[in-house]
Amino acid sequence: MRIVRRYFLILVFIAVVFSSFPIRSEGNQRQEWHSVTLDNDLFLGDDSGYSNGLYYSLYNASQNEGVEHPLLLAPTIWSYNSNESPKLSFNALTFGHIIVTPDDITQTSEQPNDIPYGGLLFLHRAHIADFGGYADKMSTTIGLLGPSSRADRVQTSIHRITGSDIPQGWDNQLKDELVFQFSRGRAWRIWSSQQDNSDFILGVDSKFGTLETSIGAGAMFRVGREIEQSFSSVLLNDDRTSNPVNVNDGWYFYTGVGLSYTWQLIFLDGNTFRESASVEYEPLQLTGILGYTYAWNNFSMTIAINGIDLLKKNSSLPDRKSYGSMTWLWRLD
């Protein structure tokens, strides 16, 4: 019965993936970009909590004319102002895989005071429109949580290759569940220097779904070169499918803070409709971010530290949130 359920969820996931691609319109000139983002707490010398995330994204971008909205964004399209023409807009299609583990992966028993084992295989669809002074984001995420994500096999194989401790507690992982999340965000470029080499960005974001339900607001300061056209990319960081990036042979340093309140997060609260492992956490979080991005020709790279806990209120989850991240972005002409 368990095997039947797994294959059923996989078939549903594949069907939704193929139905999510929009129909291309003839004559619509676009630029296609690709990116790979790797999150890993080992970049900061720890292998617990948010252990690993790997994301591949495809972007269809258009300047001075809109791109059609993918079907999966229908639940949030009502909030979009279609009467105004964007300076730049793009759709993002992301395939991702996430691994989450407790602190001590050598224990075989469930650890009730720590983050439970969990894996997620997901598809993410986003539309971002840059109107000059502000940018809008709509996104939808669907995924497979639990053993069907094969997170246990992926982590075990990697640890064998690297000679790390073999995780022993995957029998206690979160159970199979089809999850979803809708997200809506906006960023305002409220100040820029006279030379346009530094700016200040404010943003808000809300999420609703079985994956996560939360609201948040943040601020970011950037300094560098050729930064105007890339400010809308900060919205991708809210969904954790990419880091902020730059294009057009520019570069910038960035730092920011974010305040969020979380009602539900499946990696901590456990399965939605079935009993599973879970852990208590502080819903109000103040986090920091620090990074650098550099672009040359048709390539760009970003390195960052995300999720820096500024409140230190999670006494039961010490140092479990910060992680290093790298993004590689490229275009093939």
Short description:
The protein has 333 residues and is mostly beta strands.
Order of helices and strands: HEEEEEHEEEHEHEEE
Please report the distance between the alpha carbons of the first and last residues. 49 Å
Unreliable spans: 23-27
Profile the largest sheet.
12 strands, antiparallel, barrel
State the helix count: 4
Q: Could you say what the CATH topology is called?
A: Lipocalin
Question: What is the mean predicted local confidence, pLDDT?
Answer: 85
Per CATH, the architecture is Beta Barrel
Q: What is the global morphology?
A: globular
Give the oligomer, counting copies of the same chain as homo and different chains as hetero: single chain
CATH superfamily: Outer membrane protein
Report the sheet-strand fraction: over 45%
Helix content: 10-25%
The chain-level structural class is: mainly beta
Q: What's the arrangement of strands in the largest beta sheet?
A: 1-2-3-4-5-6-7-8-9-10-11-12
Any idea of the CATH class? Mainly Beta
Provide the gyration radius in Å: 20 Å
Tally of separate domains: 1
Give me the count of strands.
12
